[in-house]
Amino acid sequence: MINFKYCVKEVEIWKKEQIAQLRIEPQDTPSIDFIASVEEGTEDRCDWTPYMYFKQFVTDEMLEETAEQTNLYSVQKEGKSVNTTAKEIEQVLGMYIHMGLVQMSSVRAYWEMETRLPAVCHVMSRDRFLKLLTVIHFQDNLSVSDDAKKDKLWKLRPWLQKLREQFLYIPPEESHAVDEIMVPFKGKSHLRVYMPAKPHQWGFKMWGRAGQSGFLYDFDICQGAENPDREKSEVGVTGEAVLKMTSTLPAGKNHKVFADNYFTSVPLVQHLKERGIHYVGTIRMNRMKHCTMMDEKELKKNGRGSMDLRVNQENNKAVNLISSFVGIEPVGNVKRWDCKSKTHIMVPRPAIVETYNKFMGGVDLLDMLSALYKFSFRSRRWYMYIWWHTVTVAVINAWNLYRRDQKKLNPKKKPMPLRRFQALVGTSLTSTGKAKIRCGRPLSSPEETPTPPRKRLSCSVPLDVRRDGIDHFPIWETRQRCKHCTGNHFSHVYCEKCNNNNNNNFIYIAPFKNTGLQSALTNSKNKAN
């Protein structure tokens, strides 16, 4: 609906005219052309790697503070520190990112012999990883005041606040969509909500402002009615969410904001217009006072694509839209399927509808990207689900920033897809600046507690494969410990088929019948003994 209104003696008057035809004083008609902010650092990022883009949002300071609070919490909880570092927290994030690329039914499956993933299991032991998951912390429980605990997210607030600051550091795009974001969660929490129209019906609700590219600039966790005694705002609770999400947009730059009828109201459009922010959104009829329009039955009589100026368009169902910068003209045509005639027909489409459809999907695009390569952890601490989701969003924002830079620096070069970008981020987090885990006893250090001895993994292949009698050819190499003998014996021979690992695990070869190799293999075994 193109709702344009002006005030005469504080009385709202609705005029049935095009926006361009309305007579308003010249000083009250500023340009709607977007004034782009000067983006600094694009040239400096010409040699950035995916890891550096990710560290733009998840900084070393955030990791250092997380490691410090984790050690403190482990002392408060168990009486001894886990002695973790920021580098080890980085490895945990890298392992989580790799788990999202290769998803399995449980965390332990990444270390099991049949399904182990080297990008995960070679970084740290399973027990160490699970231990860190139980004690990762972000806030000192003993130093928080009672007023700070009124915030239901006080345990995660330091991380959320700093991550939000890093997101806001990036210059915003022209068009932004404000919508709800659901973080899936089915456990017990006072912040859990039920939304039947969402793909994930149970979870935590977030307000988000995302650009057309899917870059999340601002967000906030919905905590319900924060102050029930406060007077109701004229824009409503959802309108307050839009005002909060757009409060970080620079005023007077002619940014365009899009939202659905859950948020839209006429006072909201007025508030944003006063700050030089333009708005387009669907709106409910009960939020338009003194605006008489054709009802849905009248529009249906006029046929599909019919519209009433202010604009109430009939498609399959009447849609009401409101705008402060775009009108009906130019009216375009789109191809749609007609169920009655069983053919495609051309349907008129106003410019406001085309603009809304083009720029409204930023948050939906972010939801789609975040669900592609995201591993679902289980935890008793409900706020950890929000933390893992913010890590996933940080990867997506890093990828979007990389694509923006590539478009400016190398427009002819096709940017790497999200899957490869995420894989490079995960590999860099687990390997950059970290020492490789070596077999044997760890180096002695007065600050570190010795690790307990671990059970040696069995490298034998399934018995069905060993005894199938097909393509089991012996290969002679440097002797290794025999995987067949129960004693501490060695052998120079291993099977070409059964050696399905990269580190050449040697096994004793059963005698081959009628091949002439039986005596050679027997002699090899005797020498080993």
UniProtKB/TrEMBL annotation:
Transmembrane domains' residue ranges: 382-402
Pfam families, per the entry: DDE_Tnp_1_7
Keyword terms, alphabetized: Membrane, Transmembrane, Transmembrane helix
PiggyBac transposable element-derived protein domain span: 49-399
UniProt-annotated stretches for the region Disordered: 438-457
UniProt cross-references to PANTHER family, sorted A to Z: DDE_TNP_1_7 DOMAIN-CONTAINING PROTEIN, PIGGYBAC TRANSPOSABLE ELEMENT-DERIVED PROTEIN 3-LIKE
Record protein name field: PiggyBac transposable element-derived protein domain-containing protein
Natural source organism: Labrus bergylta
